[in-house]
Structures are given as structure tokens and as C-alpha cells.
């Protein structure tokens, strides 16, 4: 009797289902973590990764909710990858992807809105600072006026010199 006749395949299928399901979930988490690390480090993010993550998460949830065989996740992985490429053409998918990337980068739920109040830097000027600014700007204006006067006077001298030589 050969090995194949002695193996009970009915007992292997549930184990295989659980292994595929765990690998799919861990793979999705690993892929999301990799995207987060790329965004955090400021590296280039491939545009179709976000729709792929969403589609595969929906596929996993569908398999779990409707009690389908987790072995379907094998071909659904390929379908999600191929479907995420043309989905990037749609503006709502682009906006959702950018919003998700902003969330991964540490932005708020408002996406491209202004940063939080705590993150803003305010410059508080005191009276001494204002006096310094006024002093610096007045010096700058005086230098500009002197430069204009010297340019005019040198132009007059050059015009007189040019006229006297004729």
C-alpha cells in the first residue's frame, strides 16, 4: 500500500484552510506594516498598494463572514492585485488612498487639512524684538537710499565726463 492511500485527505483540508487563512491575515498585516514603514521613512509608495490592501481585506472579511473556504483566498489574492491597478484611475479611489497614506504618516482624520494646534509653531514677538526689527528695516532703507543717490551721482558724473570729451 502506498503513502497516498494511507493518508486521510479529509483531515488535511481543515488544517490547510487554517494555514491559508492565517497566512493571508499575516501577509496583509505585513504588507500594511511595510507600507507604513515606507510612508514613515519618506520612501516611494507604489500607488496601487493601498487599493490592494483594501480589496484583500474585504476578501478576507467576506471569506470569514460567509464561511467560504479560505482556500479561495489564493485566487482572490491574484484578483485583488489585478483589480487594484485599474482602480487607481478612479478619483475617489485616489482620494481614499491618499487619505489612508496621510493616516499612516501620522496625519489626522481630516486628511490634507491643517496640522493640529499642538504641532504649529508660533513666533511671539516682544517689544524688544519689534524695536530690533524696526531698527534693522530703517538701516536697510537708509542703505538703499544711499545706493540710489550714489548711483544717480555716478551717472551724472559719467554723463558730464562723456559730454566734455566731445
The tally of strands reads 0
Percent range of helical residues: over 70%
Uncertain stretches: 111-115
Secondary structure class reads mainly alpha
Q: What's the tally of helices?
A: 6
| Radius of gyration of CA atoms, rounded to a whole number | 34 Å
Describe, in plain words, how this protein is organized in 3D:
With 166 residues, the protein is an all-alpha fold. The chain contains 6 helices and no strands. The longest helix is centred in the C-terminal third of the chain and has 38 residues, at 127-164. It is rod-shaped and about 115 Å long. It starts with a helix and ends with a helix. Mean pLDDT is 80; it is low at 111-115.
Topology summary:
Elements: H1 3-6, H2 9-40, H3 49-65, H4 72-87, H5 91-105, H6 127-164
Helix pairs in contact: 2-3, 3-4
What's this, in brief?
The chain is an all-alpha fold.
Task: Name its key features.
rod-shaped, mainly alpha, 0% strand, 73% helix, 166 residues
